[in-house]
Amino acid sequence: MPPAPPAWAxxxxxxxxxxxxxxxxxxxxxxxxxxxxxKNHLWKPLPQWIAALKLNTNLAAIREIRxxxxxxxxxxxxxxxxxxxxxxxxxxxHTLLTSLPGYVRRDGFSTSAARRLMSTSGFTExxxxxxxxxxxxxxxxxxxxxxxxxxxxxxxxxxxxxLSKDGWLGIALPESLGGSGxxxxxxxxxxxxxxxxxxxxxxxxxxxxNVYATQPLAKFGTKHQLESTIPNIISGKWRxxxxxxxxxxxxxxxxxxxxxxxxxxxxxxxxxxxxxxxxAQVASKMILLAxxxxxxxxxxxxxxxxxxxxxxDRSKPGLELKxxxxxxxxxxxxxxxxxxxxxxxxxTLIGEEEKGFKIILHGMNAERxxxxxxxxxxxxxxxxxxxxxxxxxxxxQRPIGMNQAIAHPLADAYxxxxxxxxxxxxxxxxxxxxxxDASMRxxxxxxxxxxxxxxxxxxxxxACERAVLTHGGMGYAVEYDVExxxxxxxxxxIAPVSREMILNxxxxxxxxxxxxx
Amino acid sequence: xxxxxARLLNILVPVKRAVxxxxxxxxxxxxxxxxxxxxxxxxxxxxxxxxxAVRLRERLKDAVQSIKxxxxxxxxxxxxxxxxxxMGADSAIHVELPDSAPAPEPLGxxxxxxxxxxxxxxxxxxxxxxxxxxxIDDDAGQTGQMLAGLLGWGQxxxxxxxxxxxxxxxxxxxxxxxxxxxxxxxxxxLVVTTDLRLNEPRYASLPNIMKAKKKPLQKLTPADLxxxxxxLFETLKxxxxxxxxxxxxxxxVDELVAKLKEAGFTAV
Lengths: 517, 268
Hints:
The complex is a heterodimer of chains A (517) and B (268).
Chain A: H1 10-20, E1 28-36, H2 40-43, H3 46-55, E2 64-72, H4 79-99, H5 125-138, H6 143-152, H7 157-165, H8 184-212, H9 214-220, H10 223-234, E3 240-243, E4 259-262, E5 268-278, E6 285-291, E7 305-311, E8 319-323, E9 334-344, E10 349-350, H11 356-392, E11 394-395, E12 398-399, H12 404-436, H13 442-470, H14 482-488, H15 491-494, H16 499-509
Parallel strand pairs in A: 1-2, 3-6
Antiparallel strand pairs in A: 4-5, 5-9, 6-7, 7-10, 8-9, 11-12
Chain B: E1 9-14, E2 17-19, E3 40-42, H1 44-60, E4 64-73, H2 78-87, E5 91-96, H3 106-123, E6 128-132, H4 143-151, E7 154-165, E8 170-177, E9 180-187, E10 190-194, H5 206-212, E11 217-220, H6 222-225, H7 253-262
Parallel strand pairs in B: 1-4, 1-6, 4-5, 5-11, 6-10, 7-10
Antiparallel strand pairs in B: 2-3, 7-8, 8-9
Helix pairs in contact in B: 2-5, 3-4
GO molecular function (chain B): electron transfer activity
Protein name (chain B): Probable electron transfer flavoprotein subunit beta
Subcellular location (chain B): Mitochondrion matrix
């Protein structure tokens, strides 16, 4: 007589799920399962385990699950039972593979390369600390997470929550308000690291405005404004969007026509339209630039604009949001925002009335630096992936990276990125220095920041395009991520200012050539 | 009414800088050890120890007077101490060894920690030493036990739960043992070594990382502690395990069983 089948081992397995997995940063999980009697003993609890695995958000690191099955005293299967078990086998494997949040096929090279390409020599200790710590947070969000956000147009709110929980949104805000008082040099490292982790522009854009749009608020806001808003933004309770761009003004910001009309009681009534407002669907606050004096009535177009920090209260009349379908970064919403006699209280005004443009200029160079960092991150991520593929993909009996037609474009892309990196962190340092050094000309910061944004965006485009080409057909597949980054890398080329406008700016300010527009 | 806390606890947490858990280990070409030119981080079990000390403070509030992290290692080991400080330790001690020095062995480390505990106790008595049950680099798993022996203290190893009552000067510790858990009551002072399931270490938040840079970090030399780290062992050779030969894939359980039978395995 064979021994009686042992009591089913599922309590042990559940114990493993409850106790081991939340603590483990293992990439492979092996279960050894002994089962006697019918195979149903084994199959039955699997759906529950898988559900338990799915529930567990700490599973990001696990890329593979192995069940080592020891069956004994197997009763003879009838043909039907065998067919049934084969089907279940397939189902099981499929479910295991696809249902794990952190699962990516090992042979698919679809994780970001563990080796980072960028040289970090010359970075400050703070910058390196930021890079290291942000990478740890980002490691919880594998590429599959970002693929899903992109495909399903879902906001990466878990990512925003993870970063805000550990205080990252306050990186460049003053310590007195709960921030960490670091500069744009460190914030740029953070944005680059996020993009480079595989999160790309989606990850960066989900928090981007919280970092830079709050800069003018922190500098010019009243004590009451700061104390009532900044801590809530850092903690992640409120998200922020930045409302400047308008469909009928575009890059000609000074022609924006959204009006904030002052009412007798001191409050304002806003009417007009904004476009390309990132995260407006999920934001509670908007930093809004609007005219308080019509263009025709001011001496200079840069006058008559005012900056506000307003509630985006969708239940109030006069506010409408319309999501824009777009090419990349689809997890993060971009919107048209319509205001029609939308009422905002008097105390939403930031700084002096009519001086809004001067105030907002303060944040623009910072934004260019951050965008440059994000572009670099995309570029390095794509290049690392391409290099890994070129090393391991064998065609004609050799790795394709042995072909110089593959290798040289990647080597070229690397040097472009490294050059852009130096320009980017140079600009960020100038920006930070300029805050304490009144002798530094804002133009110098502007030239450096615009040049950095231009170079980083172009380098990222080169790297992303070549990464897709290196992958050949596979580069066109979502699973390999490079197509996602390629779609996203158009953003830093276009926004927040186009390549052409930067070329105009450099021609005029540095080369002293006559203005063409 | 709970009696008011009779005394204040001072906790010492020894931590080790080890090759990062995610790094693929490679033997160096001379076969004298492994390639150390890779990413290092705090030994994961020590991370659990730091976390537990911080959680004790969160539970016992002011009854925990100090949490001090200590490491013995090369200049770069200071990074590991900064991590401990960012997680919530108050201050740190770095017993600095030159880069060229061989890695200290468990007995040397235990002796150094003993000297440190005695030195510390001149100012404020150390009540609790919490450390990882082993380091993931050499997997020796000896330091905690040796330290308890050298100090003549009690030890609670492989802890999966730690409750400290400062008013009675006692701790109740759940230990992981073969076949289940064991709950023991211990008197302080005590050495606790941490097992995997004790807690899940936190990520250091940005404000805490910044604060950690300003926390005190004291540097000592082995001579300050009067200890000698000369190794007692000589590593003759380190080799990679033989490469595993890839197995075959089976389509289903029946085929697997057939293969097993073919290979001579029989049902029990």
